[in-house]
Structure formats: C-alpha cells, structure tokens
Amino acid sequence: MSGGARGKAAQPEAGKRSRGKLPLIAGALVLLLGGGAGGAWYLGLLPGFDSGSAGHDAAGASARVPAKPPVFVEVPDIVANLNTPGRRQTFVKLRARVEVADESQAKIVQAAMPRLLDLFGSYLRETRPEEIRGSAGTQRLREEIVTRSNLAIAPAKISDVLFVELVMQ
After folding, report:
1. Mean pLDDT taken over the chain
2. Beta-carbon contacts of residue 82 (< 8 Å; ≥ 6 apart)
3. What are phi and psi of 74, to 5 degrees?
4. pTM for the full model?
5. Is residue 128 domain-shared with residue 159, that is, in the same domain?
6. pLDDT digits (tens, 9 = 90+) for 21-80
7. CA separation for the pair 70, 51 (Å, rounded)
8. For residue 83, is pLDDT > 80?
9. Side-chain-facing half-sphere of 157: CA atoms under 13 Å
10. Do residue 77 and residue 160 come from a single domain?
11. What is d(CA 24, CA 7) in angstroms, rounded to the nearest whole number?
12. Where is the protein situated, by its record's location annotation (predicted)?
C-alpha cells in the first residue's frame, strides 16, 4: 500500500513539473525565433519587410544626378614652435589640404589663405606637444582647425582638413 500511494503521489508532481517547464521552453523558443527574425530584417535578408525602399531605390537611381566630387585647396607649409614649458623648443611642420564643396568656395578659401595661415600658425603655437601626439590628438587638431577655419571664412565652409605631412621635432 505504501508503494501504491507513493506512485499516485509522484504522478501529479511530474505533471506539474512538465507543465511548469512548458511556458519556459515556449518563451525561450519565441525569443530565439524573434531574435533570428529581427537579425534577418536588420541585415536586409527579409525583402518583404523593407517598406518598399528597394523599389524606390531602383526607380530613383536613374533619376539621381551624381554628386560633385569635393575640391581640395593646398595650404602652404607651416612651421611653428609649440607651447613647451622648458628651454628646449619643439617645432611642428604642417602641410595640409582643405576640402570644400565646389570651385566657388575654393576661390573664397584661396582669397582668405593669409588669414587661414595666421589662424593655423597661432593655434599651433598655443598647442602643447602632448596634445598632438597619437591619433586622438591628431583628430582633435583637425576638428579644431576646421571649426576655427569655418569661423574665419564664414560664407564658405570647409568640410575637412587633410594632413599631408605632420612632423614634430
């Protein structure tokens, strides 16, 4: 009798356990399938869910005018001493090109070149050598030169400064 009572009592526990795992397994399956479908949509593998942008791109591609290539204006070499605390001077040589949108802006930049050379030189003189070192320092220098240059040549806009040569001694 004790064996029969145990068998009947064990059966409902096993049924509760299997029913308790069912929502957990179903939830994991839904998450897995949802994640896979989301990833496929993000990668563009599901063409039916892209809001019809592929049809618009194919039709609009022939009507688009190709973008004009940017114009690069050569900046003469600049040699400046950096802001160093000791007696030993540190010099920097900078050769760069500035990127503008079109020829009309390139003419404005050429006309303002003395102002830009003064701006670049004075900014370099107040810069410390450790501020230029490394790729992060070079990027900060680029961003600062672009910002200051755009203020100096207000109607025109410089979109980027490309360093051809940047030597620190």
Report:
1. 82
2. 89, 90, 91, 92, 124, 125, 127, 128, 129, 132, 168
3. -75, 130
4. 0.58
5. yes
6. 888 888 888 888 888 888 887 787 766 655 445 555 555 555 567 788 999 999 999 999
7. 33
8. yes
9. 3
10. yes
11. 27
12. Cell inner membrane; Cell membrane
pLDDT band at 136 (very low <50, low <70, confident <90, very high): very high
Q: Are residues 121 and 158 in the same domain?
A: yes
Distances (CA, A) of 63 to 50, 53, 54, 60, 112: 21, 15, 15, 5, 37
Same domain, 116 and 159: yes
Sheet holding 71-81, edge to edge: 71-81, 91-100, 158-168
d(CA 134, CA 145): 17
36 and 114, same domain (yes or no): no
| Residue-range definition of the domain harbouring residue 159 | 71-168
Instruction: State the Cα–Cα distance between residues 85 and 135, nearest whole angstrom.
Output: 23
Q: Which residue type occupies 24?
A: L
Q: What is the dihedral of CA 110, 149, 92, 97, to 10 degrees?
A: -50
Residue 74 one-letter amino acid: E
